[in-house]
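dumping this here before i forget
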Amino acid sequence: MKRALAAVLALFATVVAGCGTDGQESVLDKDKIVIAVRPDLPSVGFRRPDGGFEGFDVDVAAYIARKLHKQATYIPVLAADRAKVLTDGKADLVLATFTIDQERKKDVLFAGPYHVSYQDILQRPDETIKNVRELKGRRICAVKGSNAAQRVVEEREVPAQLVPFDDYKACLTALKSKQVDAVTTNDVILAGLANQDGTGLKLANAQFNEQRTGVGMRRSDVAGCEAVNRAITDMYQDGTTARLLQRWFGKSGLDLSTVAVPQFEGCS
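structure:
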């Protein structure tokens, strides 16, 4: 009897261990999921005075949750903690301007991308920066956890000075007080910041470095990733993506004339 019981327990342990390489459930196995979004980016992911969240990423997250038939709870996450909330098990999905790159894919599985934008430059009204080359010798705000400013130096080989700040709110303050000369990141982030600020900060419309924004997930959740990709495809095909882009960025000057389903990374 004891031998039989031991065999059953061993088999059960093997089955449980096989459910996920990191012992974590798939999002598909849960009725309720936690989604991490940005609290600090107007029009993208922003915490309202009532404690709720709004913006393009938040609306995309809500659409995906509905398609997965899950009840979603939202938590705030800053750039530096996006991978950590997944590995620590605090969030099931991260929709927080999480640009897909090979280094991040070592720790995070990406569904999508759900949006493709470009890196741009935000500057003061009296500046005339037109392209990334004109950042040579300039001070660029580098947000902790974001690689946008670093990409200017490393990928574009522009010898700019990176000045670290905790978040984009601090970057805008530094830009207006002339502690830095430019802020650079996804154009949708910069458009939202400029719109909220209202002091005449302007985009260079430089459009460099394609930015593929994905849904961060735990590395073991391949089935969940494939389901999220199906939801993103539906979001483009039923016109939701186009409507959301117009809602949040239609007055920002961004080119929204072409909204096509992005080429997915693949869930592996």
